[in-house]
Structure prediction request, 303 residues.
Amino acid sequence: MNTADTRNRPRRGTDERSGARAAGRKPTTTIIVTSLLAIVAIYFLVPIYWVVVNATKNTEDLFGTSGFWFGNTFQFLDNMHAVLTANDGIFSRWAVNSLIYSGIGSVAATYFAVAGGYALAKYRFPGRRFVYALVLGGVLVPGTATALPLFFLFSNLGLTNTYWSVLIPSMASPFGLFLASIYANAALPDEMLESGRIDGLGELGVFHRIALPQLTPAIVTIVLFQFVGIWNNYFLPLVMLADEKLYPITLGLDNWRAQTDRLPEFYQLTVGGALLSVIPLAILILVLQRFWRGGLTEGAVKG
Prediction:
């Protein structure tokens, strides 16, 4: 009994000291982290608040009152109706175009990126390092730098001013491929893949039935980044498209904004359209975040 007590006493003392040190750090750390998160949250939420508030105003209140408080009249529903009916309902057409570009582009880009990243992480082949270097180079090149070369290429192919001129470039994601390769290398043990091959799966079967479920956090991350990037893309559609009916929301709203000098009521349409354009992104993040967190938790438990 005494031996056991002697053996346990230092351990309790050590635990108590560790707990005291942890308790001493916790309040300060919590305050700092909470303050930083609050500042970041305010930074991102203030523009959304501004858009929501100003989407309730008429043209006079937009210029005659503070942008951070409501005006003398509240006409939110009237403004939304005006946005959806202006120019024979062209905003709805822009929204559908944005969904086509972002939806198809993000899904295709994610599949190609995950497949390529999986291959780079799990296969050894001549030129692998060179391909990896090209991917890193693609990550560093901004999209605006490739817009004009892509325009000349698609112009020679006769594809400018079509859906394909925006869709095809959107299906490439060097960042997604890089992220997928890093995550596949860390989350997919070679033994797991080999067990699938032993069970009779081909390489495509191993990829689709074993690798893809384990790569859920990476897939969701790439989809979010790619969807948001395509949805907010402005310069590529500006270069490629001339028909207003093919415009995405970003280009359409800029077209409305350009008319505000001679038609001030287009300020209301631009602000209201900006508010509506945020809704699909918010819905996407809310829907996908549980898959993201669930995949991360599953990976942590397995590790």
Remarks:
- The chain is about 80% helix and 0% strand.
